[in-house]
Amino acid sequence: MSTIREHSEARLLVPSLMFIALVVAAVASLGAPLITSVATTFHVSLDSAQWTLTIALLSGAVATPVLGRLGAGPHRRVTILATLAVVVAGSALTVLPLPFAALLVGRAAQGVGLGLTALMMGVARDHLPEGRSAATIALISVVSIIGVGLGYPLAGLLTEFGGIRAAYGLGLFVTAAAFLTAWRSMPVAPEDRSAHVDVAGALVLAGGLFLVLFLASETGLWSHHLAVAVVLAIVAVLLLCGWTASELRSRTPLVDVRAVRHPAVAGANIAMFVGGIGMYLLLTLITRYAQTPHSAGYGFGLTTFVAGLVLVPFSVLGFVAGKLTPRVGMRTDAPLLLAGSAIVVGGGFVLFAAARSNVAELFVAMGVLGFGVGSFTAAMPGVILAVTPRSETSSAMSFNYVVRSVGYSLGSAIGGLVLATGTGTGTGHPFPNDGAYTTAALVGIAAMAITAVTSLALPRCSPETDPIEEPTGGTGRTTTP
């Protein structure tokens, strides 16, 4: 009877983990399709409206390592519920008829939920059988990407019929449902865990990440105030270097930097960083190209909702790849899977560079991108967790997600910078020339080539032969996954 009950609980736990990861990703991405609507509704500039997306990414990047450390300890269930409560409260702020500042606060609170994805992986690894947990972790990684593809068209559709409050209302509904789901399904962490949050380290890391993502988002700062941008970049580097040195000395580090230095983990994070730049770059290029009006001499002038539908192949094929990757991974090394996935994404860039004369070609390129991203994100946890102690799952994957967030932000910024160089003056419209998109695609191809080479260079590791010791602030013993 006990075995039957445990099997039933495991069966309910998996969809719960998927749903929560999907919701937090979709809600955080709601800012992307609503930027223009926010600008017109609140009578602010597009640059100001862009912060409804940027601030969610910022708060997510800052919260992720903190939640990862809290989630490694005995209070993981409380951490998950408290975080979702913050997300629900933020969602309520986005719906209420309040000033623009309140909307930004609400979006920042929603972005905190991005840190839950790694915690969902930790729950899966602790409470599911080994074979089941690996496949579940891969899918959690994938649905966090798919959430972007689902949130975009839904937000566009609701905005067209009910305004931005209707779109944000959907966010409130699904986050409340996620909170109730977590309340019913989240188990407590194993009893032999301890976790201490390095508050000072968290503040220094937050400052460094804020400056990095701020500089990536405010591309105009580099062109109009180069000296200020350079000074801020130097400050960011100093903060992050100081944080790294502090973490190496700490007995209770926020992130186990020694583990991050492991060749497999370090290489995987480099691949995630460069690959994230390329993946988000292509996503940005295709959606922007689809919405460019015919008056620019190219583009299709699609509405927000129809442009969002271009992301459907991305989500569908990304999910398919996520389901297939664990099975392929049983016969293929994870580094090889990462390299192959990077090549697939590079193929999406090639398609976009060579053929974008009709919407169908954009659908094909987006589908190829989705399959490559789905496979890449599903294979990534296998590389890191193969050498990571079970108790450090949330912390290790949290760091990887911070790296991914920074890569995505830089990908968006690089796309904006390349397209800006192709925007002519005195042409009567603010759109770049068609050739600028080809140039950006070539940059993306180079990024994915670097990612593929980095992935192939990763060592083939196994937990039996190459484990990482737990940090001294953990359980006090060496553990293998």
Describe the SSE topology:
Blueprint: H1 2-28, H2 31-42, H3 46-49, H4 51-71, H5 76-95, H6 100-112, H7 116-127, H8 130-162, H9 164-185, H10 199-217, H11 219-224, H12 226-249, H13 257-260, H14 263-291, H15 304-309, H16 312-329, H17 334-354, H18 359-385, H19 393-421, H20 434-456
Helix pairs in contact: 1-7, 1-8, 1-9, 2-4, 2-8, 4-6, 4-7, 4-10, 4-19, 5-6, 5-9, 7-8, 7-19, 8-9, 8-16, 8-18, 10-12, 10-19, 14-17, 14-18, 14-19, 14-20, 16-18, 17-18, 17-20, 19-20
Question: Which structural traits does this protein have?
Answer:
Growth Hormone, Chain: A; MFS_dom; globular; mainly alpha; 481 residues
Overview of this structure, please?
This protein is mostly helical and 481 residues long. Helix 14 packs antiparallel against helix 18. It has 20 helices and no strands.
The span between the termini is 28 Å
DSSP summary, beta strand count:
0
**Structural class, please?**
mainly alpha
What is the general shape?
globular
> Which regions have little confidence, pLDDT < 50, spanning 5+ residues?
471-481
Q: CATH topology of the largest domain, anyone?
A: Growth Hormone, Chain: A
Q: What are the secondary-structure elements, in order, as H or E?
A: HHHHHHHHHHHHHHHHHHHH
> Mean of the pLDDT scores?
84
Strand content: under 5%
Mind summarizing the main beta sheet? none
Q: What is the overall number of helices?
A: 20
CATH superfamily descriptor of the largest domain: MFS general substrate transporter like domains
Q: What would you report as the Rg, rounded to the nearest angstrom?
A: 21 Å
CATH class of the largest domain: Mainly Alpha
How many domain modules? Answer: 3
Q: In CATH terms, what is the architecture of the largest domain?
A: Up-down Bundle
**What is the helix fraction of residues, given as a range?**
over 70%
